[in-house]
Each structure stands twice: as C-alpha cells, then as structure tokens.
Amino acid sequence: MRTFTELPPLALYIHIPWCVRKCPYCDFNSHEQKDALPEDTYVDALLSDLAAEMPRVWGRTISSVFIGGGTPSLFSAKALENLFSGIRALTALPPNIEVTMEANPGTFEQEKFKDFRAIGINRLSIGVQSFNDQHLKTLGRIHAADEAIRAVEIAKRAGFDELNIDLMFGLPEQTQAQALADVQTAVSLVPSHISYYELTLEPNTLFAKYPPTLPKDDHRWQMQDQGMQLLNDNGYKRYEISAFAKAGHKCKHNYNYWLFGDYLGIGAGAHSKITFANTGDIVRRWKHKQPKRYMQGNESGKLDFIGGENTIDEQDSAIEFMMNALRLNDGFEIPVFEQHTGVSLNHWQTAIDQAMHKGLLEQHGFELKATERGFNFLNDLLELFMPVEQKTLSYPIFPLHKE
Prior knowledge:
Blueprint: E1 10-16, E2 18-19, E3 31-32, H1 39-53, E4 62-69, H2 77-91, E5 98-103, H3 110-119, E6 123-129, H4 133-138, H5 145-157, E7 162-169, H6 176-188, E8 193-198, H7 206-209, H8 217-233, E9 237-240, E10 243-245, H9 252-258, E11 262-266, E12 271-276, E13 281-287, H10 291-296, E14 306-311, H11 314-325, E15 332-333, H12 334-341, H13 349-357, E16 361-364, E17 367-370, H14 372-376, H15 378-383
Parallel strand pairs: 1-4, 1-11, 2-3, 4-5, 5-6, 6-7, 7-8
Antiparallel strand pairs: 8-10, 9-10, 12-13, 13-14, 15-17, 16-17
Helix pairs in contact: 1-2, 2-3, 6-8
C-alpha cells in the first residue's frame, strides 16, 4: 500500500465544450455551436457534478481554477457569475486564487470581459496561434491578426494583468521569418506569459486525415530555437518545454499538473486525478464526453456524470510523474516525487543512473532535472523509465486543456 505523508495540491478544472468552429488540428473535446448555448442547464449540471464530487475531497483547499474548452468565453458573464457563486458556496475558494479562462480573439467584447474580471476570473489564456492572416485561415481560426491584437488590448483594459498568449510554430507553408515575426508581435504586446509550441498532427483530427505539408525538420528546429532566443531576450524565461513567463508569472495551475498534483474535473469530458490517503489509491475519473449526455446526467437528480474511472498503479504513477515533471526547466525535488506518488524513487535508481550516464539527466542534492540534451531528447529520456513492454501509457497525460 502506498503511503502519503501529505496530499498534493488540489486544483479545479471546468470544461465548457462549445466553440464557434472546430479547428482542423484540435483533438480536445470541443463541439461546434449550432444553436443557442444551453447556459443555465449546463451550469446547473456543473454545480451538481461538483456537489457530487465534494465528498471525495472534503476538507481540502482548492489551489487554482482553470476554465477550458472549447471556447469558455462564449458563455455570458451572467452564466459564469452563477457558476462561481455556486462554486464558492460548495468549496469556499480562497481569496486571490488564480482563476484562468481560455478565450479566443473572435469572442472579445470590452464590457463582457470587464464583467469576467469582476466575477473573479483574473487570468486569461488567449488562443492566438498566429498573427499571420493566411496561417490563421489555414488553421481554421475565426479571427484575423488585427482582432488578436485588439483582444489583448481589451483584456488589459479590462484589468487582466495575468495574460497568456498561445502561439504555434511549424505551420503549413510557414517560413522561419514568419514564425519569428509572430513571436516579435507577441512580445510587443507585453503579456505576462507566452506558450510557444509546435503544431502536431494529432489522431482523430482533420489534419491527421488530410495532412498538410509542414516545414522540414531542420526549419522547425530553427523556428523553435530562434523563437526561444527572442523570448528570452525579452524577459520571458522558459520554465517548461513550451511555457515562457515574465518573473513571477508562471501558471500555478499548470505547474500543479506538471508535478503530479491532484485535480478535480467537472464538465463534459473533464478528467480528475484524486489521491486518497486512507487507502493509498490514486484514482483517475472522467465524465461523459458528449455535452447532451453529460447534461442528461443531471435530470431528475440522477447525478449520472461519470464516463469511467481507474486506479493508477504504482509504476504508472511514477512514469506519469516523470513524463510531466521532467518537462520543467528546474525539474523536481525528490521529496516531492515521493509525496505525490506515495512511493520511493529508489526503485528507479537504475534508470536515473542510465540517464545521467547518457547526459540526459543531472542531480544537484535533492533536485533532479533534465539537462539541455535531455530537454531536446525528452522521449529518449522518458523511455528509460518505462518497462520494455510499455511504450505508451494506458491513459492520457495532461488531457485537459491547451496551454
């Protein structure tokens, strides 16, 4: 039986699954908005879902909140106000807690975002992806470059000092100069945080079915390298493979994921990972994926939201911890591994020694971190911690949102 001297932090994730248009690269649980959004019905279901989950986390404090999608900013301020009133009644959210909401540039209205800020949402993650109109069209985005710039300006005027911009590189027909121009535009807007990541062709997406022609490997590498250098030169320090922040502005919510913290997920397709000190179990649970089916779970008080669950065994919990924590520039402290997995790191000492011999991992006191080489060849590093017969995990890693 695993033992826990203390439980990891507990975050809350809220999934709002609707968007205006499904992007061809998107593999998240999002559904095109065809009719009026069922805001009241969905908020009622979210609060019933949360109330049903609370006995599993009685007495624990919520450390951060993230509203992902889909495009959560499609919801009205009134609907989100009702949602947060209910959440506060159930959880007693601490004051000044980090509350992030994803938003797309095509949904920005000045008064609406002022109202979002008044509700207590204090961090925005804006899905810009590119400031090039042709690339935005290829990616299926509904906004133009000037709307993306306007969205950032509206967010700042509405009082959002904590602001992330999502940027992709390695886009179809993108040149190195164009990729660098996107980064230059992003830093000129002075957000507190920038996510800079490569376009990948995920299974079950339109791009996977009809693959576009992407830049060559060496060109994508140069886009990444030059983009990261420009970010660093402008004060954005890399603290995770694709996350760059001004000093003091790391995303607390994502940091909890990367260190194998707990999270409670409500909404269609949302995932949870909860640690139980009394049994030594770590349990993953997910909700019904289709919004209609999810909302039906609230009819007549059925509280039927659960799509499935499993218990994470000791080996998989250690592998998942490594898969996420070694993405962090500073790595992790060995006591945190043992606190959050309930097992000793000694079992993986052979893998650690091999990784250090290969120059992929380094240790300083109680701290383990990937070397620069290990960062660049992270898959090779992680494979050392996986059993020979297992090359992929049986459940998704970091399944919740895009940032």
